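Recall that a protein's primary structure is simply its ordered list of amino acids. Everything else, from secondary elements to tertiary packing, is in principle encoded there. The following example makes that idea concrete.
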Amino acid sequence: MQKFVRALAPAVIAAVSLTACGSSTNSSNDAAPADATTSAAAPSASASAEVPTRGNADLVIWTDSGVPKYQAIKKVAEAFGKAQGITVAVQQVSSDLQAAFVTADAAGNGPDVVVGAHDWLGNLVQNGSIEPLQLSADQVSAYSKKAISATTYNGKLYGLPYGVETLALFRNTAEAPAKPATLEDVVKAGQAAVKAGKAEAALSLPVGDAGDAYHMEPIYTAGGGYLFGTTADGSYNPKDLGVGKAGSLKAAEKISQLGKQKVLRTSISGDNAISLFTSGKAPFLISGPWALADVKKSGISYDIQPVPGFTGGPTAAPFMGAQDVMVAAHGKNESFAQEFVDNFLNTPEQMKTMYELSAEPPSMTSLQGSVDKDSAVFAKAAEAAQPMPAIPAMQSVWEPLGKAYAAIIRGADADSTMKKAGQAISSSIAGN
């Protein structure tokens, strides 16, 4: 994926809902994907100022400002236009794409297709902004089950997933030659590198002063915590919050221990996490595919693997994200939009183009065996990850949980801090 978030973006979910009713790399910064909107905030003033004019093209597609994603979807869309004998326009929205799309779609002057993260689905469906896709069971079976699960909401498939993303463990093989089987192995090897003067930090994982719930998720789940339980059909249940319950308290204690050992540090944030690793100052890095460009450019010898768990504990399960192509509910040419997404883009040839230009590990399973080694690792890691909850309740999680992590790492009591975070999240969910 091109430019991932460099910090969890203020979300527009709550404010966008109100608006609609009225009318988630080439950077060394590291944080959750930029389109993962995660907390309630009003759309910025630039959201409306930077929205393109739809124009009269037969098929209009909106994407964010990331160059690789834009180039990928533009090439595929232009091929579709040529094949259909229609005009096509791929337009970039500089900021707040989700907010701009919901508002424009409600007003009837938005695009026919929008490209964005799967965790937008709850908000977009609630606002009536997107239409279900029209794929057969055979067509759906061509994709990773985890990606299809992520792009399904209320039992309906709303997005065609072209790429997946998640966190993995990068290792500097010169500083840490042995592949770690557990997180304890990571800590031991990292501390040995620091003690030997080869590194300044045992592990580079973004925390920052306000905490980072996105990057902490594999540690939290490996420690026994969960965010939301699931219903009988496998969808997330906002009434079953795991924060504050027994598993989260065990995870909080693990995080506390790592803080006391200086393995986790608030001084490591999205601003310096990747550069600590690429400069050789940390033998391990937990990050996503957006870090690959900088890691390769650094020239260090590295390996990538799924994040391991603690000895005898659950599997580490970072968030899994899917990049989707969705059909607008009120676009001027829904028939062209459905044909483009359901039939033209939905082929190995076009999905290969999307992978080659966007550098997103593909979600179409037939392509996963032919990608480069690094992309294959991330695709495998995504299968062990859990789809980021697309439910509106997720907006209540990020800030309280992130702050709790930071406080625990700084030395606050793990048990009471996690319980208070759970209470704050529950209160927020109940009030929305």
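The first strand starts at residue 59 and ends at 63. The CA atoms of residues 107 and 166 lie 35 Å apart.
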